[in-house]
Amino acid sequence: MQSATQLVSLFEAYYKKQKFDQRYDVYRAMEYIMTMNGKRIRPLLTLMACELFEGDIKKALAPAMAVEIYHNSTLVHDDIMDKAATRRGNPTVHKLYGTNIAINTGDMMFSLAYRYVGITEKPHMRKLCEMFNKTVVEVIEGQSLDMEYETREKVSEAEYLEMIKGKTSVLLACALQMGAWVADASPKDQQKIYDFGLNLGLSFQIQDDYLDAFGDPKKVGKSPGGDILLNKKTILLLKTIELAKPAQLKQLNQWMIEKDKVKKVEGIKKLMESTGAKKYTEDLMNDYYLKSLKSMKAIKSSEESKKPLLQLANFLRAREK
Fold first, then answer.
1. Domain edge (last residue) among 164, 184, 204
2. Sign, CA torsion 75/177/234/36
3. Do 201 and 268 share a domain, yes or no?
4. pLDDT in tens, 286-296
5. 0.85 exceeded by pTM
6. 90 has which bridge partners?
7. Using an 8 Å Cβ cutoff, are 234 and 157 in contact?
């Protein structure tokens, strides 16, 4: 079994061998975001899943590339929609190259991802195309819900979970299933590793929301409360609204229109704690993490071969609070 570091190095070597015509601004912009300090989690999952089921890693490199290029294409478009100025501590593509080039770059990367799905060296490619197509549609649906919820007055917990499932979880799950498919894993094991990724992704995104409010700024890398300042409908805010008593709800409504940013963040964080929303969120992300481990345990493979994926899951889980 190869380590995560070795698999990432293998992916990077494959990426560097690819030839993109630098005469076109879209390829220069793609190169910019593709080399912007990304952790390569999604292609790593594809390669790890392939190894778990004793597949040929070389045949998994093309779908791993497809997943990573598609993921980054969504970031380019998301940053435009969010009017974000920075990504991973660097200027966003649309800030550096302009909005028109950024839109074109995202579109080009979307199409390029399909090219890498198509060159995967396996027979019966229809199944691989179907799982990738399904995931792309679900990611777009998740983004659609995210934008809709910005203006919706009420959003339920179930709706929130549906949204983050589309925005985050399904691509992690698909990355794993694609690797398992390349390795000729059984349909049952493909479903189990998909469920592992889906639940891990839900836990990961809930934790992201949690860390935005309660993470250590020095370890998370940003000031706390970005979502709070935007009144973003995270699970923390939704549960605060749901669990708040009338007096607490009145306080919350006042804090949500507070102009002083520091006071607003601290005031709402205290309500998140006193209503029990913080504890509920901690328990929820832990529940999904345990569900992911249960799915992994059900896979018919040796415990030793599962270690790299479990270690990665633990790494994602152990991000500083």
1. 184
2. negative
3. yes
4. 999 999 999 99
5. yes
6. 87
7. no
